[in-house]
Design brief:
Oligomer: single chain
Largest sheet: 3 strands, antiparallel
Number of helices: 5
Structural class: alpha+beta
Mean pLDDT: 88
Order of helices and strands: EHHEHHHE
Number of domains: 1
Helix content: 25-40%
Shape: globular
Amino acid sequence: MNNYPRFTINRHLIILMPKQPVLDWIMRVDPNPPSLTLEQLRQEQNAFLVHDALDGQQDAEKWVKRSWQVFFEGYLNEWYTVESWWPQKRTYKMFKDWFEVQYHSMVWDLAAREPISYDDWDSPDDEAPLN
């Protein structure tokens, strides 16, 4: 590996991995539920780059706790835009029952010579800043 450039970036990574209650919800609310296992559901998840001031799993958990509603609603909306299908009494405890927080402190940029580009998915009406 010595012949390859190795760069880390000043970001850490958080991935929210769905647990069984997420799959149960999908199967319960969808009139035509997909043929899906928990393993399949967990295969392709969004990854969130966060500042590198986090110091381990506990800091990551605290960081997610400050914005859990945004993460929860974002995930629900990715599956179903019909909000009446969403659980109505969402709590932080429910969020923790539904998602595992994975934290990764080393983020390697193996394409460091390529510029990073950004796409802004928020319109001015939809902005919900994360802490």
